[in-house]
Design goal:
Elements (H helix, E strand, L loop, with lengths): L4 E8 L9 E2 L5 E6 L5 E8 L8 E2 L10 E4 L4 E6 L6 E6 L7 E8 L1
Antiparallel strand pairs: 1-9, 2-8, 3-7, 3-9, 4-5, 4-6, 4-8
């Protein structure tokens, strides 16, 4: 049986920069679809549990760069891989959003 796609949604509240928490246990790869947002850098944060203080920005395996996506005006989608190490994710923007933003995250289980 092939991998199945599961869609989940996280939101960033108006005037906020951090999304709600996403449970992605057993996910291997997926995608993020961003709604029309205030132009910003989107950073991925990961944790082994849902305690806010345990979330840290995700970096590349060699530690050279952090996971960052420059999201401009308009809807965008980007693939993501290497998720199997992280049971929980959330996203952070470098700019407060002027409205509630809902992101679609699809993961292959």
């Amino acid at each position: 049986m092939g991998a199945r796609l599961q869609e989940q949604y996280v939101t960033i509240a108006q005037s906020a920069t951090v999304s709600s928490i996403l449970s992605i246990k057993h996910a291997k790869e997926g995608f993020i679809s961003a709604p029309s947002v205030n132009s910003c850098l989107l950073h991925m944060q990961a944790s082994f549990d849902t305690t806010s203080a345990n979330f840290h920005q995700v970096t590349s395996p060699d530690g050279s760069t952090k996971w960052t996506w420059h999201v401009e005006n308009g809807n965008k989608t980007i693939p993501i891989t290497g998720l199997e190490q992280f049971p929980y994710l959330r996203f952070e923007t470098d700019v407060s959003q002027t409205d509630v933003r809902t992101f679609t995250i699809g993961v292959k289980l």
